[in-house]
Amino acid sequence: MYPKLQYISQGKTIEEQLYNIHQALDAGCEWIQMRFKNQTEKNTFALAESVKFLCEEYLAHFIINDDVYLAQQIAADGVHLGLTDMKITEARTFLGTTKIIGATANTFEDIVFQTQNGCDYIGLGPFQFTETKEKLSPILGIEGYAYIFNKLKAEDIQIPIYAIGGITLENIESLITTGVHRVAVSGMITKSSQKEKLIQQLNEKLYANIIV
Ligand SMILES: Cc1ncc(COP(=O)(O)OP(=O)(O)O)c(N)n1
Ligand SMILES: Cc1nc(C(=O)O)sc1CCOP(=O)(O)O
Ligand SMILES: [Mg+2]
Questions:
Q1: I need a labelling partner for 126 at 20 to 30 A (CA). Which of 136, 162, 187, 208 fits?
Q2: Is residue 212 part of a domain?
Q3: Nearest CA to ligand 1 atom 11
Q4: 99: Cβ below 6 Å to ligand 1?
Q5: What are the Thiamine phosphate synthase/TenI domain coordinates in residue numbering (predicted)?
Q6: Range of the domain at 185
């Protein structure tokens, strides 16, 4: 199954992106989502080539934010698509069944819709306010995740759910009490001066309840 921790890359330039991604991989991150907004096709392709090489070296999963065509061209492991990006069904036709297609959700209804369209996991957010993404949907908070996870359980909907948005080491434990056991994070990892220790701490919390 997929790693429980996904790093969503940050950086205004190819160099900055590569530095942040390499640092995250070196610190033990096993899943990279390349998120490089408002860039030329040339720059995005150049970055994706380098990130693919890095992720192969570190045996990490590699998906691309938004761009299905680039994911196919570069043979990434998949994509992450939001509610205003290419439809899941269209992306699946294009990428096939072996690629990971993640989908964004802000409500229980979004989860049902995206799951019915065949996504492989859900990015459910935002948990808290974050400056990393410009146009945020309504903040869910602890109550929002608790409500949604209770409904998922009641209706026996089984799909990997990654919480996202403003997640920190300080608030992740409260998030886990709602039933969340997978997270996608950006700023917390990018900004950390002790990435290896942070990723170990996050994985300890996320894998703590695994019954072996
Ligand atoms: C794991 C994960 N969840 C949600 C998102 C947000 O995707 P989207 O709504 O398409 O917004 P942008 O990231 O494209 O600004 C994500 N990227 N990853
Ligand atoms: C990319 C993204 N999508 C979100 C959503 O709510 O759909 S929040 C977000 C930003 C996540 O970065 P950070 O961990 O720095 O808050
Ligand atoms: Mg998107």
A1: 208
A2: no
A3: 82
A4: no
A5: 14-188
A6: 5-206
How distant, in Å, are the alpha carbons of 55, 83, 93, 203 from that of 75?
Answer: 12, 23, 15, 27
Residue from 65, 119, 137 whose mutation best tests the ligand 1 pocket (most atoms within 8 A of CB): 65
Backbone φ and ψ of 169, nearest 5°? -65, -25
Count of the separate structural domains present in the chain? 1
Strand partners, 122: 103, 161
Dist. CA 164 → ligand 1 center (Å): 9
- Enumerate long-range contacts of 92-98, CB under 8 Å, 24 or more apart: 92/117, 92/118, 94/68, 94/69, 95/68, 95/71
Query: Does ligand 1 have an atom closer than 6 angstroms to the CB of 104?
Result: yes
pTM of the model: 0.97
- CATH number reported for the structural domain that contains residue 73 in this entry: 3.20.20.70
Residue by residue, pLDDT tens for the chain (212 residues) are 899 999 999 999 999 999 999 999 999 999 999 999 999 999 999 999 999 999 999 999 999 999 999 999 999 999 999 999 999 999 999 999 999 999 999 999 999 999 999 999 999 999 999 999 999 999 999 999 999 999 999 999 999 999 999 999 999 999 999 999 999 999 999 999 999 999 999 999 999 965 54
